[in-house]
Amino acid sequence: MQKIKHVFFDLDHTLWDFEKNSALSFQSIFQKHKLPFSVDEFLEKYVPINLKYWKMYRLDKITKEELRYQRLKEAFNSVKFAAADELINEIADLYILKLGEQKHLFEGSLDLLNYLKPKYKLHIITNGFQEVQSKKMYNSGISNYFLTTTTSEDVMLKKPHPKVFLHALQKAEATAEESVMIGDNLEADIYGALDVGMDAIYFGNNTTFTGKRVEQLLELKNYL
Hints:
Number of strands: 6
Order of helices and strands: EHHHHHEHEHHEHEE
Low-confidence stretches: none
Oligomer: single chain
Largest sheet: 6 strands, parallel
Mean pLDDT: 96
CATH topology of the largest domain: Rossmann fold
Structural class: alpha/beta
CATH superfamily of the largest domain: HAD superfamily/HAD-like
Radius of gyration: 18 Å
């Protein structure tokens, strides 16, 4: 990968430990509202529901507001808790606020970024909500590693749409040929990047993927 000058990262589930930070956010909310079930019981239902709604959001089948409301509504129904709309909307807002305050990164994130920063120009491409992604990066101490951050709301489209990657490349003053994308989602991050001519490294455990792949972040040193 000698041509590579720019390294683009996804944020959630790649550098920033979304599931751990999400659980801590809900734990804080549950303590405040004294909900009649445990956080673990709720998360068992919520995690796959959230992934389902994020995929629908990525495919433009639902709006941002529908995502924030419906994932909670379905999760509460799954634990047989009849939550009023007012409570769901309050928790949805509080969850976004609490999520941005969390700072847990995946193991090896800071070591990797310290290794890469002197060698490459680093960037973020994320489908996450614009108002919370910058807070996540600041509070977890990684903002200063990245020269540009591109969110789906910058272009009103979501990965894997080619225009998201092309916009990010333009913003970074980079070409596809000298850039690599690193992310956990094969559809949104990896195939999306490959489709515009970027290289890509998948961070995950799907062994059916035959391209460049790592299961631990520090394994990226084998490529970069």
